[in-house]
Records
---
Amino acid sequence: MSSGCPPQSPAVAKSEVAVEGESPLLAATFAYWDNILGPRVRHIWAPKGDQSMFLSDGEVTFLANHTLNGEILRSAECGAVDVKFFVLAEKGVIIVSLIFDGELKGDKNTCALSIILPQTELAFYLPLHTICVERLKHVIRKGRIWMQKGYNIISVLSLEIVPIMELLASMKTHSVPEDIDIRDTVLNDDDIGDSCHEDFLHKAISSHLQTCGCSIVVGSNSEKVNKIVRTLCLFLTSVERKCSRLCKVDSSFKYDTGLFVQGLLKDSTGSFVLPFRQVLYSPYPTTHIDVDINTVKQMPPCHEHTYNQRRYMRSELSTLWKTDSEEDIPPDTVIHTDETFTPDLNIFQDVTHNDTLVKSFIDEVFMLKPGLSLRSTYLSQFLLLLHRKALTLLKYIEDETQKGQKPFRSLRNLKTDLDLTVEGDLNIIMAFAEKLRAGLHSFVFGKPFYTSMQERDVLMSF
């Protein structure tokens, strides 16, 4: 063999994933930097289907190698995950690559977990980018532990790669349109009637707004579920609607972490079991709406949700680290072994916060004639009012705390000055403000951490 020839490359392992419908994802890859061979692809995940529509293994390997070139001198904190977005016009693809350090075969390596899509899917993918990245980041945290212990990281990564492929395929066919016709929602009904009681609609919209626009709608009738999904999506931005999903007729999607509103069908026994970890890892608390029995329940507010989420995440990673063998605790198992933190699996609570904002809106919107643009215009004005109140609240807190230099101590004055003395109204505006300035809840309610019950007592004392 000539001295100029590189060593022969080993075959790349490949998993074909059966995805229902057309997958917008071309492939996913796990690659690492080999000190002898340079960038090496360890595994490829590709959807099953018409192979003429997909990239060849050689092309996938070339694209995966492209993401690791130049990373040999990477300087980053231990445990950091860098997200890189490549648009290769000459290849007609986009690559989202997460670069991280891991221990492979006893050596520290720079690794890359990437997903590859056609460039034509750029507009479709961008609204979902944050959802995909956050989910991949956490599976990388678990994967790094598996690598450190010498276990098979591919099995761990598959736990999130495959669901993301399924998520993107389902969003391609069942995502909520950017523009929703109010005639397809409950807000166009002349009389709400028995199909959707006024109190149920009021609670559903109010809780939906209090949980930052994140809701799960479950039921046995797909038409009824989708009507409520479209109704709730009226209160979201156009980008957030692209991150919402209608339910599928005659079958049910799985619950997906990170979506704003999603419709889910019950099984033949009339039940739907939500996965605890996936719900807890949602970026915002969630409202649970059952259209069969007209019930509305919600998770604790943002600061408590974030607190529980981080404690559970630490508990999960700590438990994985303590495993003695790969079979002891599979990475997709609900962890509840940490003595310092036992999560409450019944995380949805009754909606106990009354409000006047949504109540007045519902009372007044149904006074307008249906079938015209009046109700849509009135809805736009209502959302504008909430947005301006949220901006005013942020400015108020900035002034009172000298832009965060001092702790916030004047909740009573804020409620009075901004006309938010009703607890539900305050929660709605705080949720709007949280989306504008992440961490606001934790800053306002401060330390030590309040549980929702303690917080309720504190609020009622003012």
Note: The mean pLDDT is 84.
---
Amino acid sequence: MSDNHANAVGGNGGAGDNGPGAAASGASASGSSEKAYEFVADDVTSNKSGTVRRMLIKEYRKIGRGAFGTVVQAYITPNKEDWYGPFAIKKVPAQTEYKSRELEILRATNHPNIVRLEYFFTHLSPTDRKVYQHLAMECLPETLQIEINRYAHNKLELALKHVKLYTYQIARGMLYLHAFGICHRDIKPSNILVDPATGVLKICDFGSAKKLEHNEPSISYICSRFYRAPELILGCTQYTTQVDIWGLGCVIGEMLIGKAVFQGQEPLLQLREIAKILGPPDKKFIFFSNASYDGPLYSKPLFSGTPQARFEKYFGRAGPDGIDLLMKVLVYEPQQRLSPRKIMAHPFFDDLRNEQYFFPREHTQPVHLPDLFDFSDFELRILGDYAAKVSPQAD
């Protein structure tokens, strides 16, 4: 549905205004063997300081393409000496609802598990003479999709500690977003950036995101099909941020089995794939999702035995706690799906609270976990009583 923000983004994290990576970035910028496309932008605005200045942009390579635009890797300089970056610059046509919404959300968010907007500017494309909004965001080495595919291709399994580490950080990012009423609406592995060497994760690509208002309808044809919540499949237009929680459940399952869990070949068949694991959807759920739904109901069980047995069959390596979490997230009724804070407090993440290290891929020595519990005052307010359950217990 939306862009794969940084499909195999190379380079280090984005250096901000004269940030620590500026010198190294300068060497990369001037020494690249790829032919760079250069242009000057007059209105480069720093998201951090709000200052607007004229800058030279050097684009090196395309790293993503989607429904709303393209993403390139680029460096920025005010004087041809101090290079900032590398950045992932997303270009979307100006004067569109998607553009303004994404920029608005990225400007307002500031969280360790949300991709950071560094600069933004407009530029007239020389190829089609249209004005494009450019969003310069921090870079991470790759997407979670690339990481999952790498393991699956080599017939290996992503370590359970990594599954826990990534899942927890997605839930923490959602805790923050959902507190503002912001629904990402396209949670999937290709919209999640990771640095496998450090374990850091950031949710990206807010091209489909929207601040949901109570009793205000939103389009149901949203979210990539394999990760689309059942109420959206049925055509619900009064949904909540819990559609993101369904997407998270799909991402957890994919990390565990190395492929998308529910792979319907067309939108309505998606519900059948879900019913194969969860069992038939309840008629009341279908009615309250969309009273005028007249598609297939899949009301007869498509398997023998219990849903619990199906979850154990598919996701057994997650262990009892992992299966319990998945069964409380992949639930038809959105209001019954766990909230982000309840997910973060789940025993599945006790390993992260009790042990401070993990082994990155191809590392023989353990690496310290990224900061997982450095909560802001805002996060602590959202967590409420759950803050004590989420945080490591003091000895």
Note: The chain is about 35% helix and 20% strand.
---
Amino acid sequence: MGQGVLEINDCGLRVFTGTDEILESPGIAVVEPQKILVGTAAQMRARCHPTQVNNQFWRRLSLESLKSENARCRHHADLAYCHLQEVADHCDLPEEVALAVPGNFSREQLALLLGIIKESPINAVGLVDAATACLSATAPRGVHLHIELQRQQTLVSRIAVHEQSVLDIAETVNDAGLQNFQDAWARVFTDAFIMQCRFDPLHSAEAEQQLYDLMPQWINRAMRGGEVLAEMEDRTAKVTLRQLQDASTPILSRVRALIENLSESTSVVFVSHRWAEIPGGAQLAERIHLLPHNCIAQAISGRWEQIFSASEALPLINALDSAPPSEVAVQVNSAAEAAATHLLFGHRALAAQQPLFVSWQEGKLNITPTPPEHPAGTVTSHAGRLALRVDAGAQLMLNGQEISTPVNLTAGDRIGVADLEDVITAISVERYGA
């Protein structure tokens, strides 16, 4: 099936054929005495068997011995091999695969990974740093950051983009991964059910599993509508987007601290698609660009000759030719001096303490505090900033340019629709006196 990519990220190993994603498998294992479940099958049972779960085998990839009754689980490398075998069993692998790896893998881990790959059905012909590949294809000249969400941590990579894009630094923020966000949100939903229904979703392992299974769709609905009515075992509890953002804030703050430490005044912060599913993720940095979900596959497809190697001992590629400046077009959320506090529409100035919804119908633009039948975008407030999130399929304009990724709003920004005269203007309302 030609050329493809295997992205190594324990949030989900992803396989691409060309630029099309054909499989994603979370880095979770449930180790039972007689069998090992990995990927989605393990994720669906992880809360029911907490003592048998291992969700750190990619992060701690090594030959360090594990205490296990299963003879196939001697160390983390065994679980990584099982995961790769599971991936191979559930999709038609490309004939030639480039491995996209995180910048925080050590030399020993990379060597071990290549040894495991050699024993698997995967025909690896290239090894490249994922952040370097992404920014080589998308970033303008300068020093920029790539932010990737992993299961237990966040990886921040600094890339110098000139004639070549070169990995400079890769550092991690521990306890700032997808699992940490999920646990924080689970506490929000649990408290809501207890307070509103006198029902504890954690009363049994099966109920806890159901809670975690349902959370992704609840989070998505809250981010689209400003709140969600979570339903579980004939109980319903309301949770607002603001509650979820507040739960995310302590984790996001630690990531922001590292971003501020590693970035320069002109740096753009490129965040992976996974951040679009994190409440508050749009406020991760002031100058931010959300990468498409297949960014890594697109980048590698255009640089295949630089990444391909005929050698069995694949060299790690962490320097690639940068895209010509004429081919780079980045929608950057730039912060102005005054952060927007209100939205001006006609003669009304609307504060966004609660989500506001942008829509249009029969040639008329509108913004309302209640969700319309066909919303085009949602404006939310968090930590003193307004953020605009565009709904899938909608074509909103910001300052005359079409946008599709979340952006922070600053005073003077104009939200509109092509061919409509009406605009919604972000403004800063200042208060004086006591």
Note: The longest strand covers residues 164-174.
